[in-house]
Amino acid sequence: IMPPKKELTPKLPVKIDHMLILLAYLIIPTFTPNLMAFDTNAPKFLSLALVNLTGFILLFSNKQIRLNPGILSYFFKTNVGIVYTGFLAVALLSFFNAINPGESLIQFSKIFTVFSAVFILSVILPYDLRYFRWIAIAFSTLLIIDSLSVFYYVNELIQGRIGSISDIKTIYSNKNMLASAIFVKLPFAVWLMIYEKNRLKIAGWIALFLGFTATFFMAARAFYVGLIILTVIFMVYLLINYLFSKQKDLFRIAGFYLAALLLGLIIFSVTQQFLYPEIKTERYTESVGKQLATINTAESSVIARLEGWRWSWEMVREKPILGVGSGNWKVNVLKFENQEHSIFTYLYKAHNDYLETLAETGLLGGLLYLGIFILMARALVKRIIKKESAGKDELYPFLFLAVSGLAFYSIDALFNFPADRPEIQVIFAFF
Questions:
Q1: Which residue from 93, 135, 315, 413 has the least number of CB within 10 angstroms?
Q2: Does the pLDDT value for residue 10 go beyond 60?
Q3: Phi and psi for 40 in degrees, rounded to 5?
Q4: Where does the pLDDT of residue 129 fall: very low under 50, low under 70, confident under 90, or very high at 90 and above?
């Protein structure tokens, strides 16, 4: 797991245009205001598309790339590139089953926008592996900023100036999006803590500690469950690496990670117990254990998710080949909605991107989408079980970042809909 001793990349001159594009991806989609729209979704997808357009212009105006077209085509020769392109094609074919072609066009535009970002990054990032360090630093910095903003509003809650944790959203559309943005940035902090040295290692731990603490305060039960699952997986991963490499530093990494997690939990628990308003009228002000205990099949939000998942399977059974059409889950679900409830609540998302994608693009599309995650995990596992130490592979640290990032992203995708959130899709594109 530890980085190789040799220099990761030759001392190439930093390309200013590359740095500007990377900076644009990091900042613009996240901080684009709603521009008088209903929420920030549409303006942020638009800004991401404009960054893509600028990226394409810079790439195709680069003489080195024009003389070496293989640089552009390489992505389409990789396993993940092939699977991702196949998913794009199936999503397009699913238009034939769409009730509302307009919704399909909108959804495909989103899919293609994210795909374009992945493609552009696949051309830029291999030029200089130092980009990964700067990206990890930038996202960890954003993680710190997001976390500190949460602490500021928690203090506002304690002082009685806001009424609920659900009012905390900062630059995002709602509380859940802020919680998601914090959660999926955690792997960058883990990466700095593991692979960097001295001050950057300390900065990574601080970002991780603040991110864990903010996650507890945001009271998103899906991410509580995710932290439990991913912490167990990470500990098992470190143990397996130790059995192969016998690196004692792995115990230190485990200790730092668990210390950040436990310290964050203690700070939240003490605050929740002694500083929160005495009259606790909502789940968000309860302890982690009590909040997790509210997860049951009789709870309204759980019922809504289970219904959405069940309806997704019904759609797959009806149209297993090409699905109900990209973006048409929200249309097809109307025949299942409001059959028994006197109060109409429109569940326009399945709250599970894998099931929603499966329903919209059929078995082939769903498997191709899932294949992106499986192929990445498979590549990491193959490197772990090699006879030689994984630390001798100069690309191993970056593959670890990609796979750990997709693991955190997957928790969000299992319970929410990050595929419809541009600021989260940018992070997905980097992974």
A1: 93
A2: no
A3: -90, 0
A4: confident
User: What pLDDT is attached to residue 3?
Assistant: 47
Predicted pLDDT of residue 351: 93
Sign of the four-CA dihedral 20, 25, 26, 28: positive
Under the phi-then-psi rule, with left for phi > 0, alpha for psi from -120 to 50, and beta for the rest, what region is 357?
alpha
Q: What is the pLDDT of residues 411-422, one digit of tens each?
A: 999 999 999 999
Residue type, 390: A
Sort residue 337 into left (φ over 0), alpha (ψ -120 to 50) or beta: beta
Cβ count within 10 A of residue 274 = 7
Q: What is the 3-state secondary structure (H, E, C) of the chain?
A: CCCCCCCCCCCCCCCHHHHHHHHHHHHHHHHCCCCCCCCCHHHHHHHHHHHHHHHHHHHHCCHHHHHCCHHHHHHHHCHHHHHHHHHHHHHHHHHHHCCCHHHHHHHHHHHHHHHHHHHHHHHHHHHCCHHHHHHHHHHHHHHHHHHHHHHHHHHHHHCCCCCCHHHCCCCCCCHHHHHHHHHCCHHHHHHHHHHCCHHHHHHHHHHHHHHHHHHHHHCCHHHHHHHHHHHHHHHHHHHHHHHHHCCCHHHHHHHHHHHHHHHHHHHHHHHHHHCCCCCCCCHHHCCHHHHHHCCCCCCHHHHHHHHHHHHHHHHHHHCCCCCCCCCCHHHHHHHCCCCCCCCCCCCCCCCCHHHHHHHHHHHHHHHHHHHHHHHHHHHHHHHHCCCCCHHHCCCHHHHHHHHHHHHHHHHHHHHCCHHHCHHHHHHHHHC
pLDDT at residue 390 in the model: 45
**Model confidence pLDDT, tens digit, residues 321-350:** 999 999 999 999 988 876 666 666 678 899
pLDDT reported for residue 67: 82
Work out the widest C-alpha separation in the chain, in whole angstroms.
69
Q: What is the pLDDT of residue 337?
A: 78
- Give me the percent of the chain exceeding a pLDDT of 90: 70
Number of other residues whose CB lies within 10 A of the CB of residue 384: 17
Residue 267 is which amino acid? Answer: I
CA–CA separation, 87 and 93 (whole Å): 10
Is residue 13 scored above 70 in pLDDT?
no
